[in-house]
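BUG: 3D viewer hangs when loading the predicted structure for this chain

Environment: internal workstation, default settings.
Expected: structure renders.
Actual: progress bar stalls at 90%.

Input used:
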Amino acid sequence: MRPASSLILILALGLSACGDTTLRDLNDPASGPEEFDIIPNKPLETPDNYTALPVPTPDQANLADATPKKDAVAALGGRPSLLDAQGPARSDAALVASASRFGVPAGVREQTAVEDAEFRKRRGRFSNIRLFKTDRYGSVYKRQTLDAQKTVETYRRAGRKTPTAPPAN
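Structure tokens produced before the viewer hung:
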């Protein structure tokens, strides 16, 4: 075979490999509904007394919403009400008391969310300009990450007992 014809054959095979990616594409190109996203509701029930209906509240579960974990617990003879969020566990009472000994400021979650958004905006100003996909979280918070190996060595030199550090990358 001549070199020119083998080059043409290699180019043809290379270009044909780029053509059809449907076997490797895990995203569904169709814009129709996904049959696995549809969850059947529980059957509707008629209340005993229409005048004693509870007041609807936002972010509260509907009686007809599917609750598969609670249904499984009830079917196995357990108490599904224990799956509801009931605050911190009793075993964490000492931790909560210690953490809140000087008081808890109101709206601390909202305040930290706003401060973090401002920080990411300042630090990640040019992080959108990338030729390849990169970890934006890692680039924004790079200065705030701890070096496990360096920290372990520092504590060991100071004579402290330390656990095993994760392997270095």
